Amino acid sequence: EVQLLDSGGDLVQPGGSLRLSCAASGFTFSNYAMSWVRQTPGKGLKWVSTYGTRDDTYYADSVRGRFTVSRDNSKNTLYLQMNSLSTEDTAVYFCARASPPETSSYFDYWGQGTLVTVSS
Amino acid sequence: EIVLTQSPATLSLSPGERATLSCRASQSVFYSLAWYQQKPGQAPRLLIYGTSNRATGTPARFSGSGSGTDFTLTINSLEPEDFAVYYCQQRDDWQWTFGQGTKVEIK
């Protein structure tokens, strides 16, 4: 059974940093691109970042230069390092598996989400 | 960036009725379209991928159609558990975008 377990969300002050983790199980982690998607409370879904299977990384314009996505295939874990956080980054962050491996065009499994609150 | 516009924002229907949700793209979608269902406090759940393919566990009353820039999710005979928010999503040039969502609520 595919499972994604998000963690690391917390209350942080503006300008602060935080690292999110997503522990994966039930599939060959290295074969899939993995992504982060966020959702502001009461709002819609916004793609944040993707780490591909060839050490390729992609970011939304709103986080490029502040967020860094990484993965450790030996630990089946995806990370999101978030720096220079602002109140606009307050959201629930979901990790998601991008499928199929050939095109990564949709997200077939999602973590439960972890809440990041940026506030003074 | 391809912008996805969903309509209507809210759909008020009774159980047993048919729901028709629209998703329009600002330019032609290359990798086809996916649809997700989200209930309060839960992660999104993949319903439809490749425009018209039901994901594992998606009931047959859900169907997707469309091409190019215009896509539709149809829910035949709404069940009580279908009242939720639905999002469309596409991938283009290593950017993924979602529509703003359509809420299907009980009338």
Quick structural overview:
Chain A is mostly beta strands and 120 residues long. Chain A is built from no helices and eleven strands.
Structural overview:
The complex is a heterodimer of chains A (120) and B (107). Chain A is mainly beta. Helix content of chain A is 0%, strand content 52%. Chain A contains no helices and 11 strands. Chain A has strands at 3-7, 11-12, 18-25, 34-39, 45-51, 57-59, 67-72, 77-82, 91-99, 106-110, 114-118. In chain A, the strands form 2 sheets. In chain A, strands 2, 4, 5, 6, 9, 10 and 11 form a 7-stranded mixed β-sheet that branches. A 4-stranded antiparallel β-sheet of chain A has the order 1-3-8-7, with no helix packed on it. In chain A, strand 9 (91-99) and strand 10 (106-110) form a beta hairpin. Chain A is globular. The model of chain A has no long low-confidence stretch (mean pLDDT 97). Chain B has no helices and 11 strands. In chain B, a hairpin with a 6-residue loop joins strand 4 and strand 5 (45-49). Chain B has strands at 4-7, 10-13, 19-25, 33-38, 45-49, 53-54, 62-67, 70-75, 85-92, 95-98, 102-106. The A-B interface holds A 35, 37, 44-47, 50, 56, 58, 60, 94, 99, 103-113 and B 31-32, 34, 36, 38, 43-46, 49-50, 55, 87, 89-91, 94-101.
Write a concise keyword list for the protein shown above:
heterodimer, A: 120 residues, mainly beta, 7-stranded mixed sheet, 11 strands, B: 107 residues
Secondary structure elements and their pairing?
The complex is a heterodimer of chains A (120) and B (107).
Chain A: E1 3-7, E2 11-12, E3 18-25, E4 34-39, E5 45-51, E6 57-59, E7 67-72, E8 77-82, E9 91-99, E10 106-110, E11 114-118
Parallel strand pairs in A: 2-11
Antiparallel strand pairs in A: 1-3, 3-8, 4-5, 4-9, 5-6, 7-8, 9-10, 9-11
Chain B: E1 4-7, E2 10-13, E3 19-25, E4 33-38, E5 45-49, E6 53-54, E7 62-67, E8 70-75, E9 85-92, E10 95-98, E11 102-106
Parallel strand pairs in B: 2-11
Antiparallel strand pairs in B: 1-3, 3-8, 4-5, 4-9, 5-6, 7-8, 9-10, 9-11
